[in-house]
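hi!! sorry for the late reply, been swamped w classes. u asked for the two structures so here they r. pasted raw, havent cleaned anything up. first the sequence of the first protein and right below it the tokens
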Amino acid sequence: MSEKRVVRKLKKLAARISAKIESVRDEMDDLEIEFELIQQHINKLEIMAKNQPVANDEITVTVEEEEADLDLENSSAVPAPKKF
């Protein structure tokens, strides 16, 4: 290959690598910001957990009524209330 062609190909490769490096830098900056936010959130949750007393004796159970099951295969099916 001629020297000019080699230099041209190396410049093209260097430009692609430079663009990729810039892209990775941007992604790293975004990840660092997200990491800091997650750490702050974890710290807040840990502080809240320390401030709230833990009651092992009390258990709260919430029972919700189930909605009528719909027949998804037959959309013309009309749900009827149960008599008994």
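now the second protein. again sequence first, tokens right under
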Amino acid sequence: MSLPSKSREMSSRSSYEEREGLLTASDEYDSFDDPFGKDLKTEPDDEAGWSRSKIVKTATGFILLLIFGAFARVLLRSPRQTHPNLSFNGDYIRSNGTHDFRRTALIVSIDGLRADYLDRGLTPHLLEISKRGLRAKSMVPIFPTLTFPNHWALMTGLHAESHGIIANNFWDPQSELEFHYNKISSAWNPNFWLGEPMWETANKAGIITANLMWPGPPKTKSGSSPTYFVPWKDKVPLSAKLDQLLAWIDLPFDERPQLLMAYEPSLDQAGHLTGPMSALVNQTLAQVDLFAAALHDSLVDRNLTDIVDIIFVSDHGMTDTSHPTLIYVDDDDMLGNQGLEAVVHEDGWPAMGLRFNSKKNESYYLEKLLTSKHPHSEGFNVYTKETMPERWHFTHHDRIAPIWIVPKIDYALTTRKEGDVGMSKGNHGYDNNEPSMHAMFVAHGPFSAVVKDLHRSSFGAWLPWKNKGWHSTSDDTYVMNSFPNVEIYGLVAKLLGTEGYASYNNGTKGFWDKYF
């Protein structure tokens, strides 16, 4: 297909010498001979014994002092001060041998790539990239674990209650408009999208940006747009997306974007259609792995792996819903037919956000749901804004309906009329604590070189807290602990040197400092 063109463009590993030097010094002083022994005067036995003890104590203290001094020297000569990538930010210029480049971040979202898909033996290239760089055990999506809320969380560093995209479809009581993710009239309406996406932050810093189909509007409420923008279109071949990304990277210096974002939905589509354990998912997983390999190899061919940070992420996972236990909300032990008819707006899926036609009905049916004797009451929870789990950060926004029925894994909400007709074989949107809802994170580039080199160095080797937050595997893959996806905004700001321009977000202040 024809894709739009532009709209307006070392890592030095610390050695083990310091650590080995300390060990050598320790061994040497263990065999320390007393230089004063042969010159000691003959004294009474009790006084001579006291002198030897004093000498041993003095020598021991001297040894400990030397060891402490050597250890302190390691700390003072921390690689934090010398690693070349620590000062490599958006303003710094490097050459790949033929062209000059500024620090560049390329973030690619593979929709629906569950964290443990990487353990299936079908993604050798993503695993190889993670071995050269690093990966996370998983990345925790925001609630609800849906595509549009989480892609905007990745862009803004905000939870749904802060960025306003509280589901893939919802009603906004202020504008009295419906948001539908698959309707351009609402999906591109900037008034729905709150917060500041990373490309707007980069724009403020004077950085050129490029957006290849990432879910979200082409323009924010402030009027900011990516420099280059390719709108969403289904069934675009991965090869065409690869060509577009490389075309942007190959632009002249003054036209080349430093922040590139790309989105690929095929794996999520396969998961919904045939379920996460299906042959189609495995086949599609292998295809996106080849795409990741081709993109990474293209950076290697251009000698850009020490210039471009490539970050592969996903928005959420996927669970099997081919044979769920059905909960009929129009049954009398739930809402009943009259209760369902009193619902004027229903938000979200697979959870249900309910707005009733009167406060009286809202109170009545809330009590009915909370006291329900439904035979499968173990399969769902009923929440109000006040009782919503705090860890979901899903309370403080007018767009969040007053009552929510949230099913658990292996259960599905439906009606007697709908039954399981049209129900997908795989789904997401459940509790973000569920492992099957977790997303993936793989990164390679200057950022990962910093992390690996600092923790391989003698500095990292001697610090008792060095392994907090991550660990290395037997094949030298560096694995971070699971972390929330709202931290990605802060990572990109740190990589591009735009932290001073960053907007308010829900990321943890200083989260990435421990990795640098």
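hope this helps!! also noticed smth abt the second:
The radius of gyration is 29 Å.
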